[in-house]
From TrEMBL:
Full protein name: Phosphoesterase DHHA1
Gene3D superfamilies: 3.10.310.30
InterPro entries: DHH_sf (IPR038763), Oligoribo/pAp-PDE_c-di-AMP_PDE (IPR051319)
């Protein structure tokens, strides 16, 4: 049991002992954060647990209880209300607010929780901007930064602050500190993007951690620069790998690759996390290459590896 699981277990026990409503929301982005804030608007005494899709999809722990509210995640087993828009997530709740054509899960969460005041509408609006990769407002950009670059405890505090004050919470000094952290990480992301070749399909492998980076932001940036599809594999540990995809859905479908790696998402944005065999960690990268070749119908791929070096980062081009 890791730290994420322990946090979840303690929150689950606390909620049940105190008879408080409990929510499970995606840990990774603004859609999950704003959905959590909407839940706390409806239930100010509620408890929120954040988790990644891979944990919920495969972890037995999240199946121990019936969740009062689940948003932006696969089915944990039992739930009263679930708000989602991912085509790859199967329904499970007593009351499903699910629409694969919806712009974000927060949009469905507001419906499921029957919230339509101005504060809730503002949160849904920024969630739509962030989840459709069409950020046009300062508030949406700052919420996106706060969601991506906050610690777990900061995410809990952010959800509570947004529930109480709406977007006015962005004026809090401690929130501004998190947002500034995100802007510094964005500078690093742009430096990496400047070094990567732009092709119709861009495949990138991070064989080691490179600072604090939002890989989803990198897929969006490379698409803005002309890539039709961006596939990023990040080595998180000796055997653990995380896949990120962004694509022009009129030409590509990210879910075909993400699903083959055990994940899911949308045609335009998807991801997965998986482990290589214990004695064959190299197979983590080999699986990524094999799935790309199979799903893209290509015999050979151009792959760019990103590495740390004394001057920041460097790249190495590979033919595989």
């Amino acid at each position: 049991m890791d730290l994420e699981d322990l946090r979840a277990l303690m929150s689950m026990i606390k909620a049940k002992l105190m008879n408080r409503p409990i929510a499970l929301c995606d840990i990774g982005d603004a859609d999950g954060l704003t959905s959590a804030a909407l839940f706390l608007m409806k239930y100010p005494n509620g408890l929120v647990v954040f988790a990644p899709p891979s944990k919920v999809q495969r972890g037995w722990l999240y199946r121990l209880i019936e969740w009062d509210f689940v948003a932006d995640l696969p089915c944990p087993g039992k739930a009263v209300i679930r708000a989602d828009h991912h085509r790859t997530n199967k329904p499970c709740a007593k009351f499903e607010y699910y629409d694969p054509e919806a712009p974000c899960s927060a949009y469905m969460a507001a419906k499921g929780l029957n919230l339509n005041d101005l504060k809730a509408q503002d949160l849904v609006k920024v969630a739509i901007e962030t989840d459709t990769a069409n950020i046009v407002s300062r508030e949406a950009e700052e919420i996106d930064m706060a969601a991506r670059f906050s610690s777990y405890s900061e995410k809990i505090r952010l959800a509570k602050a947004l529930a109480q004050g709406g977007l006015m919470a962005l004026n809090e000094p401690w929130v501004k500190t998190i947002v500034e952290r995100g802007y510094r990480a964005k500078e690093l992301m742009l430096k990496i993007a400047d070094q990567l070749p732009i092709d119709n399909v861009v495949n990138v492998y991070f064989s080691e951690r490179v600072g604090s980076l939002s890989y989803r932001q990198l897929t969006i940036e490379l698409q803005k620069r002309g890539a039709g599809m961006v596939n990023i594999l990040v080595k998180l540990g000796s055997r653990t790998f995380r896949y990120y995809c962004g694509a022009d859905k009129s030409r590509f479908d990210c879910t075909r690759i993400a699903s083959a790696l055990g994940g899911g998402g949308h045609p335009y944005a998807a991801g997965a996390q998986y482990k290589a065999p214990l004695l064959k960690p190299r197979q983590g990268l080999e699986l990524f290459i094999k799935v790309l070749k199979d799903k893209l119908n290509m015999d050979k791929l151009s792959l760019v590896e990103v590495l740390n070096d004394t001057n920041g980062v460097s790249i190495r081009r590979l033919q595989v």
